[in-house]
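Subject: Sanity check before I submit

Could someone independently write out the structure tokens for this chain? I want to compare against mine line by line before I put it in a report. The sequence has 132 residues.
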Amino acid sequence: MLYPIEISTHSRTELVDITEAIRNAIKKSGVRSGTCIIYVPHTTAAVTINENYDPSVCEDIVTTLNRLVPHSAHYSHTEGNADAHIKAAIVGSSRTVFFEEGKILFGTWQGIFFCEFDGPRRRKLIVKILGD
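---
Independent answer below. Compare away.
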């Protein structure tokens, strides 16, 4: 089953915690145990799993990516968003999580983040739920 999720971003580069939206998709599916694939169908956005307890982790990720791949550098791509394409390629367009009894099998501090690199925009991601 596919579950699209829409996201509005507010900055050029930001990480949006989508953990609850993914939990809701799993719950809505009615599948108790299985696999959840989260896919971002955009070339300037991504998805990752990382710590969602301390917000400074997301700030550090954004700051480091911006330092490593600056917005204004000498890129061949002339649309003004080459950095966003590179950041999305580094982070990746999909993640897979497992769940049992309706609960994602996370480590203590893990959460799922939509990564915006060319915002602000209205975006979507696609969640696929596979049951055992």
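---
OP: Matches mine. For the report I'm noting this point. Helices lie at 19-29, 56-68, 82-91.
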